[in-house]
Structures are given as C-alpha cells and as structure tokens.
Amino acid sequence: MASRRKASAGPAAAPAAVRVAIVGGGCAGMAAAWQLQQLNRRHAADPAAPRYEIDVYESSWRLGGKGASVRDRHGRIVEHGLHVWLGFYENAFRLMREAYARARELGLGPQAGRAADRLLFGRVEDAFGPEPHIGVASRRHDGDWQVWSGLFPPMPGQPGEPLDAASSPFSWLGYGTRALGLVRALLQSLWTPPNDAAAQARGQGRGRSPLDEAVELDFSYDPVESPSAAVERLAQLGRLGALTGVAALLQGVTMLESFLRESNPQPQLAPRLFRLAEAVARQARRLLTELAGIDETLRRKTEIVDLVLTILVGLLRDRVVFSRDGLERIDHIDYREWLEGHGATRGALASPLVTGIYDLVFAYRDGRHDRPALSAAQAVRGALRMFFTYRGSMFWRMNGGMGDVVFAPLFRVLAAEGVRFHFRHTLERIDFDGRGQRRRVRALRLRTVGAPGALQPQLRADRSPEHWPLDESGCWLDEPDSPFPPGATAGRRVLAEGEHFDAVVFACGIDPFVRACGETAPRHARPRSAFFKALPAWDAMRTHVATVATRSAQVWLDQDLEQLGWDRGPVIVAGLGAERPDTPDRGWETWADMTHLLATEAESRRRRGGAAAGRARSLAYFCSVLPDAEVAAMRRAAQRDLKAALESGMRPYWPAAWGPGRGGALAHLVSADGQASGAGLLAQQVLVVNHAGSERYTQALPGSGRARLSPLDPTLENATIAGDWTDAGFNGGCVETAVMSGWLAAHAISGALDLNTLVGYHHP
Amino acid sequence: MSQAPFKRPELDVRGPDRSFGHALRSAQAAGSGDGIAGVPLQTVTDAVVATVRLGYRVADREIERGRRVGQRLREGAERAGIADPEQWVQQAERLFGRGVAGGSEWVDAFSKDLVQLLGADPQLLRLLGQDGQLQRLLRAEWRLLARWLGLPLPPDAAASAAPGGAQPAPAGGVQIVLACDDGADRRAVRLLQAQWQELPAEPLPLWFHRRGGSGDDPMTGELSRVDGGDRLVLRTRRTQADGCWRAAVCTVAGRQLGHVDVEL
Predict the structure, then answer these.
(1) Angle, alpha carbons A272-A341-A274 (nearest 5°)
(2) ipTM score of the complex?
(3) Which of A32, A182, A410, B123 could be disulfide-bonded to A742 (CB atoms 3.0-4.6 Å)?
(4) Alpha helices of A484-535 — where are they, by DSSP H?
C-alpha cells in the first residue's frame, strides 16, 4: 500500500514547484534527483502532479562521491576503489535501466553526433557484464596457499527487471528452501557423480560441472575421466561409514527442505521447526567433522554446510523469524560471536569464507585487522540477499569506470531535463531553526571556487569544450583538466530557505553532515553542537555509525594472467593475508582481475592521441581498509604494502612471475602511457587513499543498524538525509543502500512514491 | 502573495516492516514448480498431512537417487576399465550393504532424537515417534533401496521385512560358536535370519536341514541364553554342502518359538 499524505499543510500548500537542494552528487543524491525528476515527468502528463526544481551541489569536480572515477591524460581509469555490483542490487540496477532507456529517448549515447550528447555505453547490458567467479584465499595445514573459488550458477532473470509477486525471492521460505537446496547440492556432490545435465555442462564450462560450479574444488568423480581416482574416491568415502552418514544427512536435509517448501509455518510451530533444524545440524556437524577428518580437501564444503545450518538454527533459536524487529534483533552482536554462540565449529569460524565477508564490507573497527566487527544482522541479511536473491549473475562488473558507466548517463539525462549541477560546492555549515524534536533548515553555507560571495556558475561557461565535464566519449575528465584545478581560489556561498531552496536532501557522507551540524569531529563521546545535544536519536547515529579509511591500487602488468601463473580466469579473491588475523594491518585484503578494462582504456588513449596498442596485458585492482593515521603516514603505508605485494605477496597467485629469470611482479609493471614496461615503474601505478569525508567507507558495526535514522524520519521539517549511512532497509556500505536511501529521501520530500516498489525494503 | 514555507508530508510509514509476516506475503502468492509455493498450515492436522505427503516425496526421491547410484556402480566397471568387473561390483555392493545397514541405524537414532524433542504433541508423536508412521516409511524406503540394488538385507531390516514379521529380533544379537572336533571341520557361517520368542532357561537343541537338499544329514546345534544374550552353537563338518540351512526353534515339548537360517 502506498504511503498516504495526511497533512493539510503538505505540498498542496507549497509553491507550484518545490525547489529541492540536493547536497552531494553520489549514488544517494543521484537516486533522489532521479526519483524527483520521475515525478516531474509525471507532471508533464498530469499538470496536477507536483513539480520539483532540482539543484545538485557537489563538492568535487565530478559526480559520484566514493563511486566517482575519471580518465587520466593517458586514458586510464582512476577509481576510488574496487567497485563490483552484486546481483541482488535490484533498485540500483533498475535505476540504471531507467537511466539508459531515458538516455536513448533523448538521443544520448555512444553514437550521438554532438560530443555533449555522447556516453560510453548505450545500454545497461553493454555497461555491465556478469562475473560469477569469486574466491577466498587461505593457507592449508601443510602451509601451502590455496585459493578456493566458486563459479556461482546463473539464476533466472536480470537484476533491475520488474519483479512480480510470483518471482520475488524475498521471503523467509524462499531463503530457507534456497539455503537448504545449497546444502543438499553440496552434500550430494560429496557422494554422487554429476548428473546428466552436469556431464553435459562439463564440455561447456571450463571442465566443471554445475555442482562443481558451486565450489571449484573437484570432489565429484567421473570414471570416464579418471577411473582410478573414481574407485579410490568411492573406497575412501565408503571407509568408516562416511558414505552412509552423508546419505542419511542428505535425507534429513531433504526432509527439512521439503517441509519448508510445502509449509507456511505459523509461529506456534517455531519451536518444532527449531528442534528439527537443530537435530539435523547436530547430526550434520558430527558427520561433517568426520568427513573433514578423512579428507582435508572436503573442508571447505563442510564449512559451508556448517555455516548455513548454524544460521538456520540461530535464526530460529533467537526467535528472529517471528520477531517484529526481524534481523535487527541480532544487530548488537558481532557476526562471528553469534555463529559461535549457535554452535558453529571452530574450523567454520576461522574459515576464509567468513573472513572474506568481513573483507568484502571492510568490517574492521578503526581500520585495524585485529579488530574485526560486523553486525550479525547485516551480515546475515547481506548473505541471504547475496547468495539467495541474486538474478543473472552473483556479481556484475562494469565495463568502464563507475563514473563512465553510472554517473555519466545520470548526469547527461538529468542535465538535459533541467536539473542544475553545481560543482565544487562543499557543505560547511547548516543553520537550523526550531524547538523540541523538530528542526527546519534555514540556510546552507557552502565553500566554492571563485571570488568570495560570488555565485558560482552551475556549469563552466567559458573556455570549456561543449562536452564538459565529460570528455568527448562521455567519460569524466581528471581534475587538472577540469575548470577547477587544485589550488583555485576559495569562495563562500550562502543558500537561504525560501530564496534558493524549499527543501534539502543531505546526500553527502555522514562525516561531512555531522561536521556541518557543528561537530568538530564526527564521533566525540559527548555531543558539542546544540543540534546533537537536543536530539538524542541523531546523536546516537552520530556516535555509532562509523566510517573507515580505505586504500586502493590499480596495477598494469605486461603479462596476462596465465603468464603470471593464474590459470583460472578472471576472478575476485578476498582474504589475502588472512593467515595473520592478529596483525593490526595485514595489507591488501582483496585482489580483482580487471583486465577487461584494458580495451576501453586503449580506446580512450587513442582518442587522446596516444598509441592504440599498449603493453599492458593484465590489470589488477587491490583494496583494503587502512588504519587511521596522519594522511602522509597512511599514504606511505599504502605505498609500502603495494611494493610488498608486488615484491613477494602475490607470489602464491602469480607464481610464474617469480619463475627463472622473471624478477617477480615488480619487473612487469607498465608505464602510465602504456608504452613501456619493466622495473622502476611503481610510482606510475594508481594508488588512492580514501581518508576523509564521504570518501570513507560506511561500516555496519554491531549496534549501528538500530542507531541509523531513516530518510523518512520526520525530525527535519523541510529536509531529509540520504546515503549508505541511513536506515534504508538494507543497511550496508554499498550502492544498493545508497540508491534505496535516495529513493526514500525523494519519497520523504514528495510523499508520492509507492514504498512497495522499493525492492527489498520491507525485509526482515 | 507569499506562500507558506514548505513542509514535508506526514507519512504513515517511517521505517521498514521487518516482521516475518510481511516476508511471507509473496510466498503465498507464489506460483508452482521450483517457486516459493506456500500451503498455509492452520492446524496441527494440516501439518501432519503435509508431513506425510513430504515423507512419500522424500522416499521417492531417495529411491530414485539410489537407483541411479546402483546403475552407475554397475556400469562403473566397464567405464573404469577394471579387469574384473565382478570383483568391482562385489566390492561396491559390500560397501553399499554397510551403507544401508548404517542408514537404518541412522534413521533409528534420528527418530529417537525427534521423539525426545517433539514429545509434547501426541499427533506429531504418532507420526514421528518410535515406530511411528514416518519412521516406518523411512525403514521401508531403506529396504526398497537395498532390494533395488540387489543387496542382502541387513538382519534387522530383513526381520522387519519378513512376511508377517511381527516377531521382534533377538535382543542383544546372536553369538555364534562353532563346536568341532577337528579344526578342519570349521566352516564359514553367516547368520541370515533369526527370530524367536523369548527363550526358556534351558538350552534348546536344533537340527538344521539344507534347503533343497532332502538327502543330507542334518547339522546339529544348540540355542541358549547366556549373560542376557543368545548363543548359537553349531557343529559343522567339512562334508556338509554349501547353501542355506534352516532349523526350527522348539521347546522340548515341541512348541515352535521361531526359526534360524544360516548359510555355509
């Protein structure tokens, strides 16, 4: 049911067009602008519908916030970090589908005649590509490195396409049956050969069956390929009765799965469901421990089974399933502690699978690897969504920089439709008015580039090419090529309510917002500004919703992956350095192969007058958290770790680079212009330290979920908040949260959107 | 004319509905096939009916799975290129024989767990408890699996599968002792079936006759209770033919208590 507007003093009494100032041009701000602009499109068809005049104020010279990217003078993509979209980002993908569709309607795209109308891609299908291959790194008992990677099978549909009630996977039953289906598939793969479909797929997909696509380690047996291994495997499993155990366990899981599939449990059946699940889990753990004892290579699969069953038992035991608070009931506890409390084995807790989840969301307090902290609520919600609700592929890569793929089309379409963009406008202070638990925003004080007091032109009027701020192919220009080079004169600008805006969406990061509300530092124990002193809920959010600094590196190499010694194809691997969990800084956590971007970079270089062919054969991205320190020290630490990774750290993954006469990865670096390679080019690789403002990553620490405020919170009478630091239903530091939050902010201002169309918002 | 300052509309919803019921709504509307179908269970009877239904489905799936495994095992020798396929299949059958026996034990253990855990509800207890419908269903499933694979049934399964097999298997198992004057007379003996009512205190003499061999001398033996267990003493000879030998278990007065089948 859509939310209804009750107030007689609502938009009906407002001006014909509500002037909305959106502070922040990242995902949340763009999503808010897009939804309000959608209402304007409705207004065109129905003059009685509300209308909005939208101004976007962005502190940078380009849009995107922590998702911004540019092309440097050599055409290389320079990102803030590694950006990968997950297959459950329904709202974010829908936004992009709408944006690309609208761009085509407006004649914007790669083939546009005017440079000012060009975009790198014309369709969302070209802009994003599926990436089903992810992995985690771990060290085995014998000391050797092992990368355990999985090819997750494609699921029906594409993210962002319309969901009807029949295809929506967002239900407990959906999760339960899919989870147990996964467990059953894993168990089955322990003792049965691949089925016929699997055998058929063997010829198509890199020598793995669909069962094996769930986990790459090949546990299946195929007598045709390896008769002796098949006999040995059967004998091994048969020994000690393990085969029987797995068969029986499979039966138990099948029963439970079928029960969930066929039933629609009422709360009074909860204890029985829980007991059933616990009985299965207890049997499973005993048998799986025995199995893992027989064969170490089975460990990873047994860890998955253990984790899935532990989560199932935990959800039932903690009454999460039947609580009005849903998963927020376990928000206060750390994910690992929660799993341990519900009986997960020590092996599963230390598993690189769990570490990989912490790495994926930078879940380290103060950026220290020896202080892992992740809300159990968000971890389980994220895992449920990630594994069991994705459509198409589990991961999606962008075929360009995030700025090119995401923010360029949004910018071009919105600008063409009349949205005004003001770059280099940094929020410094918010003037509030009001009493009790209500506040009005009276003025925004911004730092700009230009003479003090002068109004900054929304777009550069002189000396800019027509395509500014994008290049002639629709990619964002780098800072030195913008009209706001570093060191430009600072000015001030004051925006007043009634004169410049009627409503405000604060879509900047939480740290800039808190500072603009008068706090000198975001997380002092005691509030110093009147705003936070008077509003305890806002103060709780300020205190508990934390951000963390991150680092990112992009490295171009003159060897392809196979020449480096990695023969499993493109991949994203988390858990690097996880064998040192007690070290405050274990270096890079994640490596992603991004070689697919070399083609677009070469094309961009050619347009800039460089050579079309370069020496780069592969492109590696690294990222991780970074402990807070002085900026210079953080930069030194990142440089040191990048050198260490290329000197020796990546050797387990790229062993051939350290082959006879090869000199390691450092000897294979490629220069910025792509024309030279060899040692001594480390400084020409891209290294970014995200230490301040909205560049910092928003964490999901234990207890932070409940402290978040929704964009629908009514405290600010003429304003709202948006960003991945708000309560948007799904509360992670990610694109999807930001887009959902921006959508909610537009609803908070307009009251005209249907909450049921925000996918996954009403979610336990 | 000046307008009133803008004020956000008041909204009914200020945060996500995280309750379970909301998540279930789409499930109820789901379609068929592998979708998230939902049959609301309003009463315990509904739950029982649904559970029995799923029990049959589980049985079907397991039997089908067992059939496939058996087929693959039998084909395995050819595909694996092993010189002696018969030996390979025999090994595999022994492996699965143990598997089936272990499976029955697991069903027992699992059912006991459930009985202990779900003891509160009499209806569910009837379904899931000791010798309840579901347990019998699972036992039958294991027996079907074993038969399909052509395997000898494990003793307890064989006992419960016997026609009119109301007799409980002897508690504590049967200890077999070979009593031969000459070591060369000792033969390998396998107990095929053994069922009888409670034994009297005194030892019972047994005469085994070979099935299908009317002219052979009977093999003698003795059945007694020793330390709470049943003890079967057999006097084998090297001249006795291979095959299945059966004896009636009778009191001294001639009342039959049961029978014993052994294989030489």
Answers:
(1) 5
(2) 0.79
(3) A32
(4) 510-516, 530-534
